[in-house]
Amino acid sequence: MYSEKVMDHFMNPRNVGEIENADGVGEVGNPKCGDIMKMYLKIENGIITDVKFKTFGCGSAIASSSMATELIKGKSIQEAMQITNKAVAEALDGLPPVKMHCSVLAEQAIRKALLDYSKKTGVKIEGLDENEFHEDDLHEIEVED
Amino acid sequence: MEKIIYMDHAATTPVRKEVLDEMMPYFSEYYGNPSSIYYLSNFSKIAIDKARERVAKTINAEKNEIYFTGGGTEADNWAIKGIASKLRDKGNHIITSKIEHHAILHTCEYLEKNGFEVTYLNVDEYGMISLDELERSIKDNTILISIMFANNEIGTIEPIKEIGSIARKHNVIFHTDAVQAVGSLPIDVKDMNIDLLSMSAHKLYGPKGVGALYVRKGIKIDSLIHGGAQEKNKRAGTENVPGIVGLGKAIELAYSELEENTAKLVELRDYMIKNIQNRIPEVRLNGHPTKRLPGNVNICFRYIEGESLLLSLDMYKIEASSGSACTSGSLDPSHVLLAIGLPHEIAHGSLRLSLGIKNTKEEVDFVIDKLVTIVDRLRQMSPLYEKNQEGK
Question: How far is B377 from chain A (nearest CA, A)?
Answer without folding.
Answer: 10
